[in-house]
């Protein structure tokens, strides 16, 4: 997986009792978990630098920014526009998009520092 762009500086206090270097050698990657209630799905928890994505004016969308707290989706819609972005994480755009979900666990903290008051935003699954 290519997580280098997710690298942030953080101290041991981020996760009490755990060292990020010992926990995950991949920058930004905290852990990967599978839950019985989501059979066949692996959630990869990461620390993100950003959860905002600028939408190009040429897209025709009525908004210029999207909030993206995760990548991937278990709904498995074959026509989903966001599938292609999984390639950038060294996942495939087929079953990996449906079963390898990247969750940005610090999304609220990252957004807290942004000035979003006058922005029209769209919540999305693609960063």
How are the elements arranged and paired?
Blueprint: H1 20-23, E1 29-34, E2 42-46, E3 52-54, E4 65-67, E5 70-71, H2 95-99, E6 100-104, H3 107-112, E7 121-123
Parallel strand pairs: 2-6, 4-7
Antiparallel strand pairs: 1-2, 3-4, 5-6
Structural key phrases:
127 residues; alpha/beta; four-stranded mixed sheet; three-stranded mixed sheet; 3 helices; globular
What does this structure look like?
The protein has helices at 20-23, 95-99, 107-112; strands at residues 29-34, 42-46, 52-54, 65-67, 70-71, 100-104, 121-123. Mean pLDDT is 76; it is low at 10-25. With 127 residues, the protein is of the alpha/beta class. The protein has three helices and seven strands. A hairpin with a 7-residue loop joins strand 1 and strand 2 (42-46). A four-stranded mixed beta sheet has the order 1-2-6-5. Strands 3-4-7 form a three-stranded mixed beta sheet, with no helix packed on it.
- Computed over alpha carbons, the radius of gyration is 15 Å
Our count of helices gives 3
Question: What is the string of helix and strand elements?
Answer: HEEEEEHEHE
Poorly predicted residue ranges: 10-25
Q: In percent, how much strand structure appears in the residues? A: 15-25%
**Terminal residue distance:** 15 Å
Determine the mean pLDDT: 76
Approximate helicity band: 10-25%
* Main sheet: strand order: 1-2-6-5
Overall 3D form: globular
Number of strands: 7
Could you say which structural class the secondary elements and strand pairing correspond to? alpha/beta
Largest sheet: 4 strands, mixed
What is the gist of this entry?
Helices cover 12% and strands 21% of the residues.
């Amino acid at each position: 997986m290519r997580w280098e762009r997710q690298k942030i500086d953080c101290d041991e206090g981020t996760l009490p009792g755990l060292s990020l270097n010992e926990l995950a050698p991949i920058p930004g990657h905290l852990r990967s978990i599978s839950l019985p209630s989501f059979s066949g799905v692996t959630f990869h928890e990461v620390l993100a630098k950003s959860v905002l994505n600028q939408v190009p004016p040429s897209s025709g969308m009525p908004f210029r920014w999207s909030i993206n707290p995760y990548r991937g989706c278990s709904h498995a819609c074959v026509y989903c526009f966001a599938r292609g972005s999984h390639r950038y994480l060294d996942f495939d755009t087929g079953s990996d998009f449906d079963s390898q979900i990247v969750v940005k666990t610090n999304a609220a903290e990252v957004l807290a520092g942004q000035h979003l008051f006058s922005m029209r935003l769209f919540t999305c699954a693609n960063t």
